[in-house]
Write a structure and sequence with these properties.
A hairpin with a 2-residue loop joins β1 and β2. It is built from 7 helices and 2 strands. The protein has 154 residues and is mainly alpha-helical. The protein has a two-stranded antiparallel ribbon. The protein is 67% helix and 10% strand. It starts with a helix and ends in a 6-residue tail after the last helix.
């Protein structure tokens, strides 16, 4: 398949997924955490599955938020008893963000609808790893472009 057609098909699939996910998000948002809190909670939970602990600065960079905005977000999540922030044993100046049991439960119930979760759990490991790697790389490319793009003149 020519690269231009492949790129167009991937872009169309990503757009269709984005629109569908937004529609699902609007339907399931009654009584749920606000989107920003859910996104942060999901990122903290995902970091717990890796060797890299989540820090406020990593969360800020990943979400594209300022450090003060993430500080306020983390305070809201702590007040709701969804996360804890503890000093890093290796570097006391740094904080490690982790989910609480309540936070894990909240993330599990609001991150995806039951039928979506069931589908995701059935994806073969090799395919899941390939899709995850693709989306991680795409996110990196987009984030890099956003930090290097010239700011338009006013």
């Amino acid at each position: 398949m020519p690269q231009k057609i492949q790129a167009a098909r991937l872009h169309a699939a990503l757009e269709a997924w984005r629109i569908t996910e937004q529609r699902l998000d609007r339907r399931g948002s009654a009584g749920a955490l606000p989107r920003t809190e859910r996104d942060a909670l999901a990122l903290v939970l995902a970091a717990e599955q890796t060797d890299e602990p989540m820090t406020p600065s990593t969360l800020a960079a990943t979400l594209g938020f300022s450090t003060p905005a993430v500080s306020n977000l983390l305070h809201r999540l702590q007040d709701a008893e969804l996360i804890t922030c503890t000093p890093d044993p290796a570097d006391g100046r740094r904080k490690i963000v982790t989910t609480t049991e309540t936070g894990r439960d909240a993330c599990d119930t609001v991150t995806s609808a039951p039928h979506v979760r069931k589908f995701l759990m059935g994806v073969p490991t090799e395919q899941a790893e390939a899709v995850s790697a693709f989306l991680d790389e795409l996110s990196s490319v987009i984030a890099q472009q956003q930090t290097t793009a010239p700011v338009p003149a006013r």
